[in-house]
Amino acid sequence: MIIVMKRGATPLQIDRVIKHIEHAGMRCQVIDGTGWTALAALGDKGPANLDTLDGVDKVVPLGLPYQLAGAGPDRLPTTLQVRNLALGAGRIAVIAGPCSVESRQQILDIAHLVREAGATGLRGGAFKPRTSPYSFQGMGERGLELLAEARTQTGLAVVTEVMAPEQVAIVARYADVLQVGARNMRNYPLLVTAGESGLPILLKRGFSATMEEFLLAAEYILKTGNARVMLCERGIRTFEDHTRFTLALASVPYLHETTHLPVVVDPSHGTGKASLVAPMALAAVAAGADGLLVEVHADPAAALSDGFQALVPAGFRQMMADCRKVAAALGKTL
Question: Residue 4: beta bridge partners?
């Protein structure tokens, strides 16, 4: 494993970590960089709790199966910018809009509303993966055309889902960011084809996926040469039934320790209840999220999909105001 010391770590702190490694029966090799120090712990099994020692920034296991997604002592966190949508380096992006594009007036009204509240990305599904084959499946290419029109009017970056490899070409003609949804996290041909498009990819965690499986899915995209990948925590399925899913916010700091990729949180799918979206969005910002993906609808009761988890305009504006305060307390901008 590699133990990356904090910048400015003292010789005494470094020496204590070395002794801790050697006491566990491992050899230690010091790696000095420009302004930083790392320690390579060589042996069969490393000592536990190294990340709790004074002066330690992070511990990076070696031999990870996700070679491109993994963090490293000389690998800086990835930052992304698409139009005005910027993530990382202290910038928190908000992508907001309806679950589905339902009509021209609906998507244009919501696009203007979320932009005025401070969002820089517009979400909206033109192709919708639904559990029931009888549910609204989206407007298809017409929905994509309306998203593009909303972008022209507002400058928002369009983030929309692609469900199959054969859809990538058509969606890529209209979108700024391709979203691969939770149900398709393991659709490996789709991951490869989406990666080959060259567009940024927002990859959602499957609702039964481990962190390793999630990062290996990202590896499929990165392996195509497309480094513009965002990881999205959207909740996992557990025994709990008081929320739609269980929003695993511990994944945010864990992913920042494990990977260099930016992390987005979707509190709408993560809770499935509009009343819980804003509190969990605040918690996500406090946990270190680089972005938020939030559903907003002018009339949730009339929404064709997932209205129960959509914020009304006033609620979204209040969420944005509150999240800015949390971001400012952390020295970030939203």
Answer: 38, 58
Provide the β-strand partners of residue 2. Answer: 40, 60
The torsion of the CA quartet 58, 63, 65, 67, rounded to 10 degrees, works out to 70
> ∠ CA 88-330-203 to the nearest 5 degrees?
35
Could you report the per-residue pLDDT of 214-272, keeping only the tens digit for each? Answer: 999 999 999 999 999 999 999 999 999 999 999 999 999 999 999 999 999 999 999 99
Place of tokens 């400058």: 155
Residues in the chain: 334
Q: Amino acid letter at 16?
A: R
97 contacts 110 by C-beta, under 8 angstroms: yes
Tally the C-alpha atoms within 13 A of residue 149's C-alpha that lie toward its C-beta. 15
Pairing of strands 56-60, 80-82: unpaired
How many angstroms separate the CA atoms of 136 and 260, rounded? 37
Q: What does the pLDDT look like over 146-201, one tens digit per residue?
A: 999 999 999 999 999 999 999 999 999 999 999 999 999 999 999 999 999 999 99
State residue 65's pLDDT score. Answer: 78
Handedness of CA 281, 214, 183, 112 (dihedral sign): positive
Q: What is the pTM of this model?
A: 0.83
Quick one: CA dihedral 110, 111, 116, 118, positive or negative?
positive
Q: What pLDDT is recorded for position 1?
A: 75
Q: Encode burial over 205-235: b for 16+ CB neighbours within 10 A, e otherwise.
A: bbbebebeebbbbbbbbbebebebbbbbbbb
